[in-house]
Design goal:
Chloramphenicol Acetyltransferase, about 20% strand, about 450 residues, five-stranded mixed sheet, alpha/beta, globular, 11 helices, 15 strands, seven-stranded mixed sheet
Length: about 450
């Protein structure tokens, strides 16, 4: 998507809303919506202080005006129309920001709503900001449910009244993605706090590349599925978030933290599948790649392209300390090669499906049928590494600067599990999200422990 460079308001007689055809990613997502597993992206931002309600609402209203492409709703149309269209609005249809009093179950309730209640596409904008006041420090808490939080290496919270605030941003993923919404949030923080929230410069990567691997696993082989654990009877997604130390990486290493996270994810699932008696198969992990600028010119919408990183059965079965450096180097080669490729966001097949050669109702039925038929060849899981949060997210003297930010991506079957990571204030914030048709909270906790173990093994010095 591209940003709309026109004023959100205009003088004179009212003009009909501008309409924009759905891009490929939006249309495919719209075709495959399921009520029991909403396509939401959850963003959770922890601040040390408190926010003023009126001032925050005004800041978000101004941020929406500065990024008018987010002010959109699905335009009504007949079943035989050839395209879905976004209708761009001058003002929000609903109040975006709502406040919730803190309490024992306040965070759990907000996380549950972020997974189960998608902002409607029929109202502009398709996002919701829920502010939980008096949430207090998150340190020292331990998850006991499917949307819990666990933190490592932190002290118990100090006694006294809770002052912290947590922002829950819930996004309808058919309309836009997490990085785009973070751009809008950074603008709101700047308006609210009066402080510069410009993005930090991207880290400089070494120009040298590791040698190419002797053999790259085939993208055409049928990949492993995440072995079922203990499915739950209720539909939808479960989630667990945790805070971990950033993994150590030797200075000058030819691989990145993203490569360490990719290897940790692959080894975690391979271990899980062995424990559950699954037949060994190659793993394919989907990785979003985002090339958009992070400044105020960032295009708002679904702007990432998806690539798939493959791992063979042998290289995941032989992962001792002596073999870890080689696995990290091979992974770095693969991820760099995939990032450098120029290709459509969802591949050429999706572009064909979304061409207006038939009414949207016909193409929607075909898309759902093809998705179901291709389920066995869908990648094993998705790892979305947001990386270091590029914005300070500084809300000024009273509310302060964000010290923890979590994201989570939808986890519909057939993948049934997504891993999302971000780093803030030198810590790694990990969210595991799963389909309850595949896993339970206890399964998620075990996967978290496995991930932490394998992340530590990637710190072996070459």
């Amino acid at each position: 998507m591209t940003a709309l460079h026109q004023p959100a308001r205009a003088d004179g007689p009212p003009r009909p809303p501008v309409r924009v055809p759905f891009p490929v990613v939006d249309e495919v997502s719209r075709h495959c919506l399921q009520e029991e597993e909403p396509e939401t992206v959850h963003i959770e931002v922890h601040l040390p202080g408190r926010l003023e309600q009126g001032r925050l609402r005004a800041a978000f209203a101004e941020a929406l005006r500065r990024h008018p492409r987010i002010l959109m709703r699905q335009a009504p149309g007949r079943w035989y129309r050839r395209r879905y269209e976004w209708e761009l609005t001058a003002e929000p249809d609903v109040e975006v920001v709502r406040f919730t009093a803190g309490g024992r179950d306040a965070l759990r309730g907000a996380r549950t709503r972020a997974l189960t209640e998608a902002p409607p596409l029929s109202l502009s904008p398709p996002i919701r900001v829920e502010v939980v006041e008096g949430a207090g420090p998150v340190a020292g808490s331990e998850a006991t449910d499917a949307v819990g939080v666990r933190l490592r290496g932190t002290d118990d919270p100090p006694p006294g009244p809770a002052r912290g605030t947590v922002l829950f941003l819930t996004i309808n993923h058919t309309a836009l993605d997490g990085p785009a919404c973070m751009r809008v949030l950074a603008t709101a923080a700047e308006v609210y706090g009066g402080r510069d929230n410009s993005p930090a410069a991207a880290p400089v990567r070494s120009a040298t590349s590791p040698p190419p691997p002797e053999e790259t696993p085939s993208h055409w082989s049928r990949p492993a599925r995440v072995a079922p654990g203990t499915p739950e009877p209720s539909p939808g997604n479960g989630m667990l978030v945790t805070e971990l130390p950033l993994p150590h990486r030797p200075k000058g290493a030819p691989y990145t933290v993203n490569d360490q996270l990719m290897v940790s994810t692959a080894l975690t699932i391979a271990h899980w599948n062995r424990e559950h008696g699954a037949h060994p198969r190659p793993l394919r992990i989907t990785m979003p790649v985002d090339d958009r600028p992070r400044d105020a010119t960032m295009p708002i919408g679904n702007g990432t392209r998806l690539v798939e990183v493959c791992f063979s059965v042998d290289e995941l079965a032989q992962h001792g300390p002596d073999r870890m450096p080689a696995l990290l180097h091979r992974t770095a080669t693969r991820t760099r090669a995939l990032k450098s490729l120029s290709r459509p966001q969802l591949g050429h097949g999706a572009s064909l499906l979304t061409a207006p050669w038939a009414p949207v109702a016909v193409r929607a039925a075909l898309t759902r049928a093809l998705r179901s038929a291709a389920a066995p060849w869908t990648s094993t899981t998705l790892l979305s590494n947001i990386g270091r949060i590029p914005y300070p997210l500084d809300f000024g003297e009273d509310a302060g600067r964000a010290h923890a930010v979590w994201f989570s991506a939808p986890a519909r079957m057939p993948r049934g599990l997504t891993v999302t990571t971000a780093s803030t204030a030198g810590r790694l914030h990990l969210a595991l999200r799963w389909s309850r048709a595949l896993l339970s909270h206890g399964d998620g906790a075990h996967l978290r422990d496995l991930f932490e173990h394998y992340l530590h093994t990637t710190e072996v010095t070459p």
